[in-house]
Amino acid sequence: MVVLELLYRVLLIELQQVFVSRYGVWGALCLFFIGVGARARNTACLSAGAVLFVLLMSQA
To answer: How many other CB atoms are there within 10 angstroms of residue 49's CB atom?
Structure first.
């Protein structure tokens, strides 16, 4: 279980670095809102992150 948690954290950090390097500050903000919304089960934060993600993808 500890190994899976460690692997999850490492993959999450690497994914965040790739996403931020490609999409900049807005990408980091998008990941932040999605992460907070998923952990807190807050649909407003999750929806805001999803909308930001869609906007970033439509401009790319």
So the answer is: 20
Kindly report the CA angle at 42 between 39 and 43, in degrees rounded to 5? 125
Residue recorded with tokens 């670095």? 17
Q: Is the pLDDT of residue 26 over 90?
A: no
Backbone angle region of 41, left / alpha / beta, with phi > 0 → left and psi within -120 to 50 → alpha: left
Of residues 54 and 23, the one with the higher pLDDT is 54
Read off the DSSP letter of residue 8. H
Q: Residue 58 corresponds to which tokens in the numbers above? A: 């439509």
Two structure tokens written together for 22: 């490609």
